[in-house]
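Entry 0007
Protein: Oligopeptide transport system permease protein OppB
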Amino acid sequence: MNFVRFAARRVAEMAATLLVASFVVFGAMYLAPGSPASFLLAGRSASPEALASINAQYHLDDPFLVRYFRWLGDVLQGDFGRSITYRTDVSRLLADRLPVTLFLIAMALAVVVVVGLLLGRIAAVRGGTTDSAILVTTTFAVGTPSFVAAVLLQGLFAVRLGWFPSSGGGDGLGDMLWHLTLPAIALALYLVGMLARVTRSAMLEALDSEHVTVARSRGVPERQVIRRHVFRNSLGTVLTTGGLIVSTLLVCTILVETAFSIGGIGQLLELSTTTKDFPTVQAISLIIVALFMIVNLIVDLLLPLVDPRVTLGSREAAV
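Output (structure tokens):
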């Protein structure tokens, strides 16, 4: 029952935060210089009647709060409006482009989790030269921005060696895996280094804990000590970085998609921002915020299950 109340409270808090975020997302675009009407006119002069017609079509002449509540009501029904640039429904644009972005993020996240946890565990358990080598490697990874990694990987493995495509998202599962391998690695490189370091530090701290010393003194096999008492107890610390990992993936995918010309929402957001396509930018921004908050909610709900030392709500109390 405590878990149900905790989950219900967190969902209510997320809904309230999303409401505030929707207001900020909607209003932020109108603070930027320029207007959708100027883009539609493409620098051409227009009569007052034509300009009034454009403003009426896109409700640009309505009061701000009227526009916001109309937009919010439509969003709650799954209608994000009509793209000014592409002259089509934003929902259709998202349906066409969101799957490739989510697939890219899923591939990158898999690389981050598998490689990051593995390197961190090896560094903490083996120590010595292995630990030093992994620290040097992860330092290089953390110091390499995603867009730099994208350019390097593209130049070496796509252009020079020709092992992977240099652009595009592919068609079909197998083709998508082939096309998105380099982008996923570029997107994951920084986070692999970060997660490996977090895992290493958490496991080293767990190795010095009293219960590990007691387990060893009782003759528990070292492999079992590492698995049950060290790695498992460090997962709580690792899990708390989940929100940061996902938020970084969501932000950096814009750069990576642009570098590899992947037709996802990252590249769409970059183009829509340039052309002042308000409905598209607002929809993508709101989706990114919602995904980030959903991940944080999942982390909050899983943390007490992964780490029994954490009680419901203790993370919030600590903050």
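Curator remark: Residues 95-269 form a domain with the MetI-like fold fold (CATH 1.10.3720.10). The chain has a mean pLDDT of 80.
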